[in-house]
Amino acid sequence: MLSIPKLGRSGQEHHVQYLLRSVEPDIMPNGSTRWNIRQMATYHSFDFVTGKAVWISIKANDVISDRVKEAASQLPALDPEFLSNCSGSFSATLVTHLLNIEWCDENWRQCINDIESRARGILVKAQSGRIDQQSPPNILSSKPPLTCQGESFPGTHSTKESDEKSPSRSGFRKTVLHSPSQLIPKQLRFKKADVVRVSSRLLHPSRHDDNTYPDREQSLKILDSFSFEELQQLHFLSELLESFQLVMELDYQTMSDISECYLDLWNHEDLPKEIKGNCANKMKEFRRRIERTQKNLLIRIAQVKALLTALGNGKELVIILTLPLISWHLR
């Protein structure tokens, strides 16, 4: 940097710029709340000789401007009397950075609670929904085994003479089958009319059997309670939470960069002794409040991840509950 006395610049300056994001509410005409991600770009320079600071903040509304004005009327560090020297101006710089950083954590709790309340109604209905649809009874599932030790089926012939002349290698009796159908016991044999009737029942199940299938009107009510609009709402909330998680992770990293930047500055050998002597406590408070804000963001990120898991399970449950009923009514 060049020394330009006419502009009050000594050439010994520190520059920092960063981009922070946060969520802010917008009240819609119908009274509902819409949450939007808002960005703020900040440029700052500080002169270590004159104590002059330059702040340039770009934001779409006056939220940060109002925060600074309110803080200037309440915080002693921003009182003009304390800005007359280099150490006082440096302390005011740290406080101003904190106003920007703490803005990032201002509305996340309210936002996450609002989204959770929107999803809770759908998730509770999905978790409490029941569909007791039984499948047709399998009339052939209880048939006995075709072979039994020590018994022979009707229609099979085994003689002593044939057994003696043609013994099997394994030692078991050799049986001669006159027809494959003779393997089936008489009590399990179906007449042709019975087979036709059973096939007709399997292909065209009765819709009037209340013990086998749920009532059609009740099924329609269950299907109507799980609408595709609710499934789309769960999907929309999931995408919204994923974008919120990304924003908080980016802010966390930006805060770490700001803290490391000022820690390196504090440990620099050319930092004026006046600032090191008078601003040590302010510097500790600055880094402590950044760490506290980062911990709050980690808590919000954990809440978002848990809610994302619940929404994912809810979407799968709604799909499981809806698709079988759709296929049932399309048959």
Structure report:
Residues 158-167 have a biased composition (Basic and acidic residues). Keywords: Kinase, Serine/threonine-protein kinase, Transferase. The protein is of the alpha+beta class and 331 residues long. It is built from nine helices and five strands, in the order E-E-E-H-H-H-E-H-E-H-H-H-H-H. The termini are far apart.
Topology:
Layout: E1 13-27, E2 33-47, E3 53-59, H1 63-74, H2 86-103, H3 108-128, E4 156-157, H4 160-165, E5 176-177, H5 192-203, H6 216-225, H7 228-266, H8 273-278, H9 280-330
Antiparallel strand pairs: 1-2, 2-3, 4-5
Helix pairs in contact: 1-2, 2-9, 3-7, 3-9, 6-9, 7-9
What descriptive keywords fit this protein?
331 residues; alpha+beta; 5 strands; 53% helix; Serine/threonine protein kinase; serine/threonine-protein kinase; CorA-like_dom
Distance between the termini: 80 Å
Which term fits the overall shape? elongated
**For the CA atoms, what is the radius of gyration?**
39 Å
Instruction: Estimate the mean pLDDT confidence.
Output: 76
| Derived structural class | alpha+beta
Biased composition (Basic and acidic residues): 158-167
Region (Disordered): 128-175
GO molecular function, one term: protein serine/threonine kinase activity
Biased composition (Polar residues): 130-141
What would you say about this model in short?
With 331 residues, this protein is α+β, with helices and mostly antiparallel strands.
